[in-house]
Design brief:
Layout lengths: L2 H14 L3 E11 L4 E12 L4 E5 L6 H8 L7 E6 L2 E2 L7 E4 L11 H12 L3 H14 L15 H13 L5 E5 L7 H18 L2 E6 L2 H7 L2 E5 L6 E5 L9 H6 L1 H14 L7
Parallel strand pairs: 3-8, 3-9, 6-7, 7-8
Antiparallel strand pairs: 1-2, 1-4, 4-5, 9-10
The protein binds adenosine-5'-triphosphate.
Length: about 270
């Protein structure tokens, strides 16, 4: 088969294969004094373009699962495949955003975003164009030179998001990215995140403690048990991709899923 024919033949198949495949994953942390089973037999497939939210009580292994997908933590049992390849070391072709935005205090917005390009040796002109596009996409225009301490928490998270998306990763992993924000800013970021997901077509896996955030953002919501983390249920509310905030919150598909999620997590574990 010629290369072109091979590409054509493999083209459509790519979209029907999971972009992330977690199979029978268990994670045991051992130290001299103790042993912790953080994850127990977790299997999860994420298809290209999906927005998967992972909700579960504190300490159930959500962050560990993301770090394993990113290749930052090596599993004890089971395997993870990203883009069809087995993950055995830190993955470069992903974006990662954390609860704390981890911006460099002495660099302005644009330069914090371009840090990603410097670390990867990206073509400078292409990176700058891309940064401009993302600054516009996230509403940071006019703040290109502002230092992190001159920005609100929501703006800092937007900068971190731009940095995570600069190299156009097909997969974006987000660990409680809006957890440190006040309720209103968090809502605003949820609305923007939904739009950015639709506009970029990025596959997103986002860990959250918040019931409304999990249901508003997720095309699929994966619910985990207390440690050792297992997947107890997956919710698919069937909401349209484009979601207006207040109408979505009163949509029966949203309220049913949110109620179920609350029941599964138990009121004592829920932070909103
Ligand atoms: N590097 C490590 N060494 C030892 N134990 C660890 C390590 N990383 C995580 N753990 C343990 O694994 C368990 C799961 O931790 P993890 O941070 O993944 O949970 P989480 O669901 O993300 O929690 P939270 O919602 O509170 O952030 C915890 O008991 C934690 O103490």
């Amino acid at each position: 088969m010629t290369t072109a024919a091979a590409l054509e033949a493999s083209g459509p198949a790519v979209d029907t294969e999971p972009i992330i495949e977690v199979s029978n994953l268990s994670m045991r942390f051992r130290s001299k004094r103790s042993e912790t089973l953080a994850l127990d037999d977790v299997s999860l497939s994420v298809m290209p373009g999906e927005f998967v939210t992972i909700a579960g009580p504190s300490g159930c292994g959500k962050s560990t699962l993301l770090k394993i997908i990113a290749g930052l933590t090596l599993v004890t049992d089971g395997e993870v495949r990203l883009y069809g390849e087995r993950v055995t070391r830190p993955q470069r072709e992903i974006g990662f955003a954390f609860q704390r935005s981890a911006l460099l205090e002495w660099r302005g917005v644009r330069k914090n975003i371009l840090l990603q390009a410097e670390m990867r040796g990206m073509d400078r002109r292409h990176a700058e164009e891309r940064a401009e596009h993302l600054i516009e996409l996230t509403g940071l225009t006019g703040f290109e030179k502002a230092l992190p301490h001159e920005l609100s928490g929501g703006m800092q998270q937007r900068v971190a998001l731009c940095r995570a998306l600069l190299h156009e990763p097909r997969v974006l992993l987000m660990d409680e990215p809006f957890g440190a924000l006040d309720a209103l800013t968090r809502e605003q970021m949820n609305i923007e995140m939904n739009r950015i997901w639709r506009e970029t077509g990025t596959t997103v896996v986002l860990v959250t403690h918040s019931v409304p955030e999990a249901v508003f953002l997720g095309s699929r919501i994966v619910v985990m048990s207390p440690r050792p983390g297992r997947i107890v249920e997956t919710l698919v509310p069937g909401l349209p991709d484009e979601r207006e905030y207040s109408t979505t919150l009163t949509d029966p598909r949203f309220t049913t899923a949110a109620e179920r999620l609350r029941d599964l997590l138990g009121a004592s574990h829920v932070a909103e």
